[in-house]
Amino acid sequence: MTVWRHLRAIGLLPVVVTLVVPAIIVWRRGPVAVRWELAFLSLPLISLGLVLVVWTVSLFATVGHGTLAPWDPTSRLVIRGPYRHVRNPMISGVLCILLGEAALFGSLPLLLWFAAVFAVNAAYMPLVEEPGLRRRFGEDYELYQAHVPRWLPRVRAWDPNQEAD
């Protein structure tokens, strides 16, 4: 697993979604002031999002032996860290960053971008990603899917080694 594989996937996916497109949206609006009165909301959201994205990319590399990119997926099912609470923590991280950016700039267009990213992922996950994961990982993924929610995290981490939930 090369660093280049991960950098390419990170650069093409979360960086474009959380930095490039928002920068273009903000730039097209002209001069925009940072809404520091909303920093109590925006900075924790952005920080949480960054932590989730970095953590999940790291887990994909070390546990899953793959990247976050659909063209270079993991070869092992990742059920560690935040994946024991929610099935899509990387997308949750990206959404936290986008929501934080929308608040930081007080930007309705950024809020609409957040909604568009969520809508695309809300359709993509059940229609494309989850069937692919079922094909690749079979019963292991079906058991995981039955116990860990797609978007709203479980309070208590799911332990795949325990019989009961």
List the helices and strands and how they pair.
Elements: H1 3-12, H2 14-28, H3 39-62, H4 89-105, H5 108-147
Helix pairs in contact: 1-2, 2-4, 2-5, 3-4, 4-5
Q: What does this protein look like?
A:
The mean pLDDT is 88. This protein is an all-alpha fold. The chain has helices spanning 3-12, 14-28, 39-62, 89-105, 108-147. The protein has five helices and no strands. It has one domain (3-147). The longest helix is centred in the last third of the chain and has 40 residues, at 108-147. Helix 1 runs parallel beside helix 2 and helix 2 packs parallel to helix 4.
Count of DSSP helices? 5
Poorly predicted ranges: none
Portion of residues in beta strands equals under 5%
Rounded to the nearest angstrom, the distance between the terminal CA atoms is 35 Å
Oligomeric category:
single chain
> Can you write the helix and strand succession as a string?
HHHHH
Helical fraction equals 55-70%
State the major sheet: none
- Report the mean per-residue pLDDT as an integer: 88
Structural class: mainly alpha
* Principal-axis shape: elongated
Radius of gyration: 17 Å
